[in-house]
Amino acid sequence: MADEVKLLKTWSSLFGLRVVWALKIKGVQYESIDEDLTNKSPSLLLYNPVHKKIPVLVHDSKPVVESLIILEYIEETWKQNPLLPEHPKERAAARFWAKFGDDRVMPSIWEAFIKGREEEEHCAFAPAIENLKFLEEQLKGKQFFGGERIGLVDIALGWLANLIPVLEEIHAIKLMDRERFPLLFAWIQEFSKTPVIADCWPPHEKLVSKYRAIRESLLAAAPPHHA
Amino acid sequence: MADEVKLLKTWSSLFGLRVVWALKIKGVQYESIDEDLTNKSPSLLLYNPVHKKIPVLVHDSKPVVESLIILEYIEETWKQNPLLPEHPKERAAARFWAKFGDDRVMPSIWEAFIKGREEEEHCAFAPAIENLKFLEEQLKGKQFFGGERIGLVDIALGWLANLIPVLEEIHAIKLMDRERFPLLFAWIQEFSKTPVIADCWPPHEKLVSKYRAIRESLLAAAPPHHA
Lengths: 227, 227
Hints:
The structure is a homodimer.
Chain A: E1 5-9, H1 14-26, E2 31-34, H2 42-47, E3 56-59, E4 62-65, H3 67-77, H4 88-115, H5 121-138, H6 152-156, H7 158-171, H8 182-193, H9 195-198, H10 204-221
Helix pairs in contact in A: 1-3, 1-7, 4-5, 7-8, 7-10
């Protein structure tokens, strides 16, 4: 019996894209189901009763949730084109940088994106820049975080390639310029143009509109910055 | 050549204990090094330059950090007495509940512990109780989260067994009572008295003093609750 694989996601979700990319790299056929998060489907509520969030991978009617956990599941279930290195120490390092991306890089960039104003951009972006420096260091001597090919860390950090150009357009700044982050800059180019990634890239203009609207609504709801 | 295994931790760290328990369950010999976090050692800064936190597992001079990642490393390196089930779906479920413990249960209990005052205890503890209900559900028909023996989820949630009695003593309340959470109540008893766990349990009275002092200093530093 062929595997029945479904993926509940949204068109723009950075977490959903991780799963899309991993399935494509593994060559796993799947049915993509776009959720409307303002009106969650009974399937989503059934399959992820705790968080009620996408992405959800449904494999032979059983759900797996949390994007980094789904990546581990995909790696263990479909062995071809490995996403993780073989040695436990390198596997631990890959998991570390994936988690660092979620725990440290993502909130620092999000905070800068929402709160950063032109007059204080340097200050607002400082923590994000500090975090990105650690990632820059990891790319020394490598094309991808995974080495010569895209691996779990590239997939986990793929949202950077996705979001940085959007953020830069909205803020009209250069956060990840070639001088400051030559390796990350090159990585974004290489990663984005890899066919398996490029094939399912959400349209840039649509992302800009979406994130511009999110930023404006959050700023409107927030208390004034200077009392 | 025998493995050289060192563990940088503190006497009370709930995250450090995870690694201690996993190494004991696997029967791995290790050297324990207690860190003074007010005066971090050169080793700690060398081995965990990003977070500068314990625990750090040093195996043949190479560090592994982040307690849940260390557990995966231990599982992959020493195969005896597995901490994770065999099937990828069950492995994903175990990783989910371990992460749920860190992302949801821990902050909700910490918040209640710090902010909860007698007159509003019901309200302060409500999110923690909601989260604990999910865990109670997971224990149905099982002695441990891992089934008949202690597994990754038990180790990851072990801090509950450790901290709940401390918190209850400081607050003079019963959070995890036998009526509300019969299965979690029984699990705390079973887990705590398992020899491999009980052997390295920090002294209850010392934990009470420590957490009482943390709570008092945080409350003293916080703005008044009612303006």
